[in-house]
Predict the structure.
Amino acid sequence: MTNPSVTGFSLTRVLDRHVEDVSLPPDYSPPYSVGRNPAGGVWIGLMNGDLASFNGGHASVYHLHFPTQYPTKKIRPIWNITTEAQGNVLAAGTEGLVEKRGEVFHYLTVANGLPCKGFVEAFQRDSHGTLFLFMSCTYISISAAEMERWWSSPGSPLVFKEYGASDGARPAHTYDSPSTAVTSDGRIWFAPSEGALQMIDTEHPIFNRRPPPVAIEALADDGKSFTVQDGTRLPPHLHSLRLDYAGFSFVAPDRMQFRYKLEGHDTEWVDAGTRRQAFYNDLPPGPYRFRVIAANNDGVWNNEGSSISFYVAPTFYQRVWFKVLLGALAALILWLVYLYRLAKATEAVKVRLEERIAERERIARDLHDTFFQGIQGLLLRFNTGTARLPVGEPARPIFVEALEQSDRVMLEGRKLVLDLRETSESSLLEDVLARAGDEFQSLHPAKFKLTVLGETRPLRPSTSTELYSLVREALYNAFRHSQAELIEVELHYTADYMNIKIRDDGRGIDEDVLRERKRAGHWGLPGMCERSEKLGGKLTLWSRKGSGTEVEVSIPATTAYRQPSDSVLPSWLIRWFRPRTSAIG
């Protein structure tokens, strides 16, 4: 039987009561630990942290690739080695635990959550396959199922149970290879090179089933403390709110775990670990409820925990009335800007209308003073020449008829000039319509009646011009085509609309013309509709055969009436925008 051991830096073998030295290759790092290999030979842990296999004089070295925390440290020995029944090799050292399955190595280190910077002094399995790691600062146990999960996901964190001073353990760093053993009663013994012999009873574990009480102890902000009771009202401008809480356990208070949640701020529970404080920065105003729960050293949670409700008061600019005031102020500013731009646009339209009216007046003056005067002079000379022709002259009747036609043309031209000047100079529609009615009585001897209802208001020049043209067209059609005995015009001034009705008791309009609003070869009705649409109004036409006709046009007040100062701005706003002048001297 072979019984390998390590003495100093030499390897010896005892075989059938004979002791012999075993020489290692000269490039080997000095051996530190040895373990039996059931397949033959031994496993050797080297001082530099590598693992070697020696069998029958043949040696193989495996360079272990721990994610080392000591890249410049040359001595990081392998403390313990063992080969399990499945042929897996476990080795523990200064940087963690390594497991070899076939030719695959997986490393268990601080990256998986090992404490003590991964410094594993020794390890041992119990009868249930649970792996116990003896470390410089604590003892931990990892279940067989957890080890298998770790093997399938080597980078994942471990779930393990920790044994500390509260469990009776006295972990201590050793400078020699510690010894471990498991007895038939399931107890694991650990013999460090220094200190007392220690034991873990794996068959009769102590389990703490009592959930720990939890209490909230303090509520403070920037060093100022507040009363810890429900409904506490906290001042605004909280910069760093601190809540202190505690759990009560006499078994292992240092291994208690906490979770907390601030309802109204947190959507999930915050895992605080062993920390006993919660911090919140710049909480907005409103009601909150802080809850905290705790678990004992064996993971038994007190899900009821403890809670406290409090209210963070708002500053004046965080209050609802202030936000409403800001919204109203913003709306007022936008409204004033809108009115200002509307006033500027209205002023521009007014300027264009005044230019249009001035142009109409200029055209009327030019026609009267230049064109018609010149034509009148030509007609006088033509009339003089015609008078000198003998009565029996064959051409005389032609000249006389031409003179009569010229008189009619001149009359129509003068009427046109009169319309231009009247609609430009007067905004009182009833005056120009009364004259138009009197004029059209020469076409048909019907009785004309004009009625004005409501308080008379001045019209916008452009509206007056379009309405005059529309009503004049309706009157012309009534006098010329209706054969009526009475023709009426009714002007109704209301606060919302300007209504005009033109009625007659004549023969009515053909149904086809009424439906199409158009007579072949005539453009009077389409023109009336177009003018009404241009003013944003509504034109209604009613007629029945033998019962007369009624035309009604309705124009909105904002389009029809001239506003004070032709401005949509209030008078106080006009005064505010108007530049101020000051007297000098």
The first strand starts at residue 2 and ends at 7. Residues 579 and 585 are 20 Å apart (CA to CA). The mean pLDDT is 80.
